[in-house]
Design goal:
Elements (H helix, E strand, L loop, with lengths): L4 E12 L2 E12 L3 E5 L6 H8 L7 E6 L2 E2 L5 H6 L2 E4 L11 H8 L6 H14 L1 H5 L10 H14 L4 E5 L7 H16 L4 E4 L3 H7 L2 E6 L2 E7 L6 H9 L5
Parallel strand pairs: 3-8, 3-9, 6-7, 7-8
Antiparallel strand pairs: 1-2, 1-4, 4-5, 9-10
Helix pairs in contact: 3-6, 4-6, 6-7
């Protein structure tokens, strides 16, 4: 394992009940770059992410986080290791204010001075959240709620962010906003692994690509290696493997 590895899946089999989703899946997710997983529906993208965050336990294989075995870790223990997930749905508490939502992101932190530093970091990155800190989250637009979800994740002082389809369910005019938010995180040096269906948008900010099909990695490499768009589409739709 490289010293630059953040999360490693080693020959993982996993699934739900009797339904196997991941088949001998191995991934070496590195630090200091934006990683992206794409693939057709049912390819195992979210399951792979949920193995990384402890929501799905591997049947076979090993999960390693920052060089330490985390195969049997609980979701809370994964969070304590610095791996923070922004889920696809239900990613804000609608009846709580913006500031209350942010506080929930740092629920493990009790030191007031540290909390204030984290609030300021989030507000500096997303000034709208400062302006609306007393507003009920459920009254915000979809794009603003996506921003709030990212801000709440930053409150946990993540070592690594996992994002599950951040643009899912948003109107087309809001998707650009979400990718603007992700660009801010990238510019701030936040390490990320992102699952995303909007391939064209994702390829603007992603630096390393994994393509999954039927629970297996069928392509991985730097974005620049995907120079033939027809090849990318074929791989993305799962019509062939490499």
């Amino acid at each position: 394992m490289s010293n630059s590895t953040a999360i490693q899946l080693d020959h993982i089999d996993a699934g739900y009940g009797q339904n196997q989703v991941l088949h001998d899946l191995s991934m070496d997710v590195r630090k200091e770059r934006v990683n992206c997983i794409i693939g057709p529906n049912g390819s195992g993208k979210s399951t792979a992410l949920n193995v990384m965050n402890g929501l799905v336990s591997p049947w076979v294989g090993t999960l390693t986080i920052f060089g330490e075995d985390a195969t049997d870790s609980t979701p809370r223990e994964i969070v304590e290791r610095g791996i923070i997930t922004v889920p696809q749905e239900g990613n804000v508490f609608p009846d709580m204010s913006v500031r209350e939502n942010l506080r929930m992101g740092a629920y493990l932190e009790r030191e007031k001075s540290v909390l204030q530093e984290r609030y300021e970091r989030v507000y500096e990155m997303f000034p709208v959240l400062r302006e609306r800190e007393r507003q009920r989250a459920g009254s915000m637009s979809g794009g603003q709620q996506a921003m709030l979800a990212l801000g709440r994740a930053l409150m946990a002082d993540p070592q690594y962010l996992l994002l599950d389809e951040p643009s899912a369910g948003l109107a087309p005019n809001l998707i650009d906003d979400v990718f603007d938010h992700l660009e801010r995180l990238k510019s701030a040096g936040i390490d990320m692994l992102i699952i995303e269906q909007n391939v064209r948008k994702m390829l603007v900010i992603a630096e390393y690509i994994y393509i999954l099909d039927q629970g297996r990695v069928v392509f991985e490499g730097n974005k620049d290696e995907l120079t033939d768009e027809d090849e990318l589409v074929e791989l993305y739709l799962g019509r062939r493997s490499v």
